[in-house]
Amino acid sequence: MANKDLRDWLAAVDQIGELKTIVGAEPKEEIGGIVDLYQRKMGNAAVLFDEVPGFPKGARVLANILTSVPRINLAVGLPHDATEMDLVQWWRTYMREAPSFEPTEVNGGPLIENVLEGAAVDLTKIPTPVWHEHDGGPFIGTACLVIMKDPDSGWVNSGTYRVQTQGPNLATVMMSPGKHCRIMMQKYHERGQACPVAVVVGNHPAIFMLSGLEIPYGKSELAAAGGIFGEPVEIMKMPRTGLPVPANAEIAFEGFIHPNDVMQEGPLGEWTGYYAGGSRPEPVIRIETMMHRDDPILLGAIPAVPPNDNTFYLGTYRCGAIWNQLEAAGIPEVRGVWTHEAGGSRFWTTVAIKQLYGGHAKQAGMVAAHCHAGAYCNRWTIVVDEDIDPANINDVIWAMS
Fold it and tell me: Which of 139, 159, 260, 377 is the most buried (most CB within 10 A)?
């Protein structure tokens, strides 16, 4: 069973020697620069920033969270020393069986240790870094959950979208066209209604990971997280919107997005390693309630030159998903799948098979390149024989030469 609380996971990470605490770094230039250095090599420690100058004592920032296989293993409940292939097989089983437990509502939890409403709401009390040199401001939401409810079906969706602090009670959210929460928001706005929204910016990494994956339309990420934990996620409802948030979250706020209410947002250095999206008007969240635990931890998953904290965890998931979809399409004797870290787990997919018939390799390559899990942002799909380790890029290049 995985640890169900960010602090439990953090303690486990510390126990295996993969946590570095840094005292006194300021958030406008130093924290982002230090995180960038730590992300340049996968396997570096997670970084916890404490005693941030100018902010309340105890308020902390945690980043570089999922750039090592042992830390991902701990997040999903595997032994920390499980191999990368163990993790791929874990994702295969999880995605194939799709275990799920509907969340359980509880009456409060650690999140309500501090409740701020109305004029008392102040996002700027949370030490929020400017993560990259040319970012348009501090982004409080990078490893976040943006939670909305479909006005027709009641389906609750949790997605990870970037959220920029714009003032004490103002934030903007950037949701690309076609994303589930954007579809929900548009439904409210087409009816002339404000869209209720809750945002969680400190939570267990497993829930963050699921919010960044392609959980099927109509299925709740909070229910899917229960499948990882082996029991329901305990949630509480925010007082103004009634939206569910994990009761043991570190920081959460809620409010409304009104029709045609936008504010200039961005840019934010993105997972491609450059400023891909620029700056443009994006929807404004007018915040009515903010809650946080004592000594809250702001969780960051920072886009940067791949592989990075925003993409590395996707690699083994993508391997497992492609492997499952190959077998579902009837491709026999798949012996391994790997999406290489050098492409942010997106650009290069290698499939190892035991060839049984003419055209087998071509068939495997075509399915891997065009299946749902393999098509998004993929550039190259390579098929090799079973004696080639698909995770070893040198072996793959040798096999192609």
Answer: 139
Measured between alpha carbons, how far is 70 from 13 in angstroms, rounded to an integer? 8
Of the CA atoms within 13 Å of residue 261, those in its CB half-sphere come to: 18
Cα 151 to Cα 148: distance, rounded to the nearest angstrom: 9
Beta strands in 258-368 (DSSP E): 262-265, 280-292, 297-299, 334-339, 348-353
Query: Would you call the peptide bond into 267 cis, given omega within 30 degrees of 0 as the criterion?
Result: yes
Transcribe 339-398 into DSSP letters. E-GGGTTTSEEEEEE---STTHHHHHHHHHHHSHHHHTT--EEEEEETTS-TT-HHHHHH
User: Cα–Cα distance between 98 and 101 in angstroms, integer?
Assistant: 10
Residues 172 and 165: beta-carbon distance below 8 Å: no
Task: Please tell me the distance from the alpha carbon of residue 247 to that of residue 393, in angstroms, as a whole number.
Answer: 43
- Reported as a single tens digit per residue, the pLDDT across 337-350 is 998 765 445 688 99
Identity (one letter) of the amino acid at 223? A
Among 104, 306, 101, smallest CA distance to 210 is for: 101
Q: What is the DSSP letter of 215?
A: P
Single-letter code of the amino acid located at 80 = H
Q: Locate tokens 């495997």: which residue? A: 364
Q: How far apart are the first and last CA of the chain?
A: 44
> Residue 161 has which token pair?
């979208």
CA distance 75 to 284: 32
Please tell me whether residue 184 adopts helix, strand or coil conformation. helix
Cα dihedral 266/116/243/6 (nearest 10): 80
